[in-house]
Amino acid sequence: MARKVHQYLIFETAGGFCGIAWSDAGVTRFQLPTKSADSTERLLLRRLPAAEPGTPTPQILEAVAAVKRYFEGEEVDFSGVAVDLDGQDAFFRDIYAAARRVSWGRTTTYGTLAKELGAGPEAARDVGQAMAKNPVALIIPCHRVLAAGGKIGGFSAPGGSTSKLRMLELEGVHVGPPPPTQQSLDF
């Protein structure tokens, strides 16, 4: 069996440096922003050590442009970006397909995704594990999947849940208690 060739590109966005890796079948890995190109490359290569820098295809260039627009605050739909989930568990693939249907500015919960897939509430942990292992974060919008009760939950990307909150804020989503309806008097 031939070894799959992975190429990658590190690029700058308004949110920091991102990385994208691809095969002939689609995007295989996406690295959310870090503060430096070196750290982004190091994180990307930790998951794909045999990947080589490459010249992006037109489809990859479109994905990169969409990512740049996203981090500038523009509404972007990544559902048309081809992803290569080769080697992923079948249930995780189903979870990722369901997560891709959660559109800009919307959220869901681990439990709701599990229920949508016909699994019981115990599968919410599996959904959480799939989100933590998501190889193409943002393109598969794991940041839009929250814990029970609309709590932020975990986030395995650089910056953790703070990064998740920033991404949701870019989309106009407020997570947390609602602001008070009555303002204090200024005296």
From TrEMBL:
It catalyses: a 6-O-methyl-2'-deoxyguanosine in DNA + L-cysteinyl-[protein] = S-methyl-L-cysteinyl-[protein] + a 2'-deoxyguanosine in DNA; a 4-O-methyl-thymidine in DNA + L-cysteinyl-[protein] = a thymidine in DNA + S-methyl-L-cysteinyl-[protein]. Gene3D superfamilies: Winged helix-like DNA-binding domain superfamily/Winged helix DNA-binding domain. Residues 91-173 form the Methylated-DNA-[protein]-cysteine S-methyltransferase DNA binding domain. The keyword Membrane does not apply. NCBIfam families: ogt (TIGR00589). It holds the Pfam family DNA_binding_1. Keywords: DNA damage, DNA repair, Methyltransferase, Transferase. It comes from Rhizobium mesosinicum. This is Methylated-DNA--[protein]-cysteine S-methyltransferase. PANTHER family: METHYLATED-DNA--PROTEIN-CYSTEINE METHYLTRANSFERASE. InterPro entries: MethylDNA_cys_MeTrfase_AS (IPR001497), MethylDNA_cys_MeTrfase_DNA-bd (IPR014048), MethylDNA_cys_MeTrfase_DNAb (IPR036217), MGMT_N_sf (IPR036631), WH-like_DNA-bd_sf (IPR036388).
